[in-house]
Amino acid sequence: xxxxxxxxxxxxxxxxxxxxxxxxxxxxxxxxxxxxxxxxxxxxxxxxxxxxxxxxxxxxxxxxxxxxxxxxxxxxxxxxxxxxxxxxxxxxxxxxxxxxxxxxxxxxxxxxxxxxxxxxxxxxxxxxxxxxxxxxxxxxxxxxxxxxxxxxxxxxxxxxxxxxxxxxxxxxxxxxxxxxxxxxxxxxxxxxxxxxxxxxxxxxxxxxxxxxxxxxxxxxxxxxxxxxxxxxxxxxxxxxxxxxxxxxxxxxxxxx
Length: 256
Known about the structure:
The chain is an all-alpha fold. The chain has one domain. 75% of the residues lie in helices and 2% in strands. Helix 1 runs antiparallel to helix 2, helix 5 runs antiparallel to helix 10 and helix 7 packs across helix 10. It is elongated.
């Protein structure tokens, strides 16, 4: 339609009309490009919001998970201190040989931690990190989820103490199984050490304590593990602060 009009104007040498047709064509092309650009920008923003919303949820999981582990590790350390108290002074936990055995065993508990990087890994794998408009936020997220950060956290949060093998190896299998199944609540986001009745007599529990104290490395290993637990508790603070700061930055970005 436009082409036939232009040809007609050329034949009649209607230069003003030709110029107007040219302007109409160019304007149409520019408008089409602009509409496409707007649509692309809107789609990119929608994808950015989707990714950031999921990453924000992952970060909240990290914050909550660290808080739960900090509480749990404090409970484990407390059990360890009661056990070492018996080893050093002979004072039974609440006057009970069974509760003292249980404290020795509880002190060997571990609960690993690693950040949930599902959403960011998906975003990075798809090459969509540049969808995040804020360069500062992109850099902060990349640092938080970097391989080097993962390695450091793996070293700090997934250590298995030698004490764990020592005390569990010195505990009768029936007693160990009882403590694991009846004196502990296992959950993906929440773990608790539970009060539970004694499965053995006080005399039998006292014999288990004798085995513990006769082990050449058990008590020393427990002291070392308690020190590590204290360091774990300290490590939680900067990691929680980092996750909290990122969550706040994402909230700010989503509010724009």
